[in-house]
Design a protein that fits this description.
With 273 residues, this protein is of the alpha+beta class. It is built from two helices and 21 strands. It has two domains: 88 residues, no CATH class; 147 residues, no CATH class.
């Protein structure tokens, strides 16, 4: 009965985390580039009650008698299924068609990766620089910030549909600045470490970032940029509501198990009366 109390309590804690994850998904249903998360569970240790040779006459038993000790959350898995493209009036809004990620330079200079292509021009240390809403510099194919020279009129700056940065001359011709928005891929995107917002960092589990412009013989499908679109969150509200109902019922069942164990302990305490 004491095992049942702790096992059911572990189930309630695990389902609480599950509900927290679902709530976070629903809260970010309108967050650009957000990746939905799913709580994964694993069984705890098993306690052996009887070994294979503990019958009354010493006969060989095919299996032992074991009882589980509950569950816990093993990981939070992100889904990298692409969200739907949403039209944007911004000239610096990009949607990635494929498995690529944008690379940005974080606060401390660390590299972060995101699917959120809602970019803006900001005044950087070297001039007008392409950045995210948080002020992180967007990197080109060479891993450098995208900077507009001081002698270029900001009103003439233009980015092509392929991500090539340049400006238009007075006669309307496009002049390239030899910088293109970079795209990177990972062998295992699910292994990326989640950081603030919709940003990820590479880990040993994800593998090193692969530059699509210089894959070095790696077989991958090149991503494409769509200008004037942003990637919506890939959260499916209907699925999350179903998952929420299932988690709530599982929580209730575990609470019932605790109540049943408590009643059994109460009955055992009353046997002496």
């Amino acid at each position: 009965m004491m095992r049942a109390l702790w096992s059911a309590a572990s189930g309630m804690l695990a389902q609480q985390t599950n509900v927290d994850t679902i709530a976070n998904n629903l809260a970010n249903v309108n967050t650009t580039g957000y990746r939905s998360e799913k709580a994964e569970f694993k069984s705890l240790l098993y306690q052996t009650l009887q070994t294979k040779t503990t019958t009354a006459n010493g006969a060989q038993k095919p299996i032992s008698a074991q009882v589980g000790l509950g569950t816990r959350v093993s990981s939070m898995t992100s889904s990298f299924k692409s969200g739907v493209p949403v039209a944007s009036e911004s000239n610096t809004a990009f949607f990635i068609e494929g498995d690529g990620f944008f690379a940005v330079e974080g606060v401390d200079g660390e590299l972060c990766y995101t699917r959120n292509g809602d970019f803006f021009w900001t005044n950087g240390t070297d001039g007008l620089t392409l950045a995210t809403a948080e002020g992180y510099y967007v990197l080109d194919q060479e891993g450098n910030p995208i900077v507009i020279p001081a002698n270029v009129d900001t009103n003439t700056v233009s980015i092509t549909a392929s991500g090539e940065v340049g400006y238009k001359t007075p006669d309307g011709n496009f002049t390239s600045l030899n910088q293109t928005i970079g795209l990177w891929q990972f062998n295992n995107p699910a292994g990326l470490e989640k950081v603030a917002g919709t940003y990820f960092m590479e880990t040993v589990a994800s593998g090193n970032a692969i530059n699509e412009s210089n894959a070095g013989g790696v077989n991958l499908v090149q991503s494409k940029l769509k200008k004037g679109y942003l990637e919506a969150s890939n959260v499916q509200v209907a699925d999350e509501m179903v998952n929420l109902i299932v988690a709530q019922r599982a929580y209730e069942l575990n609470s019932k198990a605790i109540q049943a164990s408590d009643e059994m302990l109460g009955q055992a305490n009353q046997l002496k009366r």
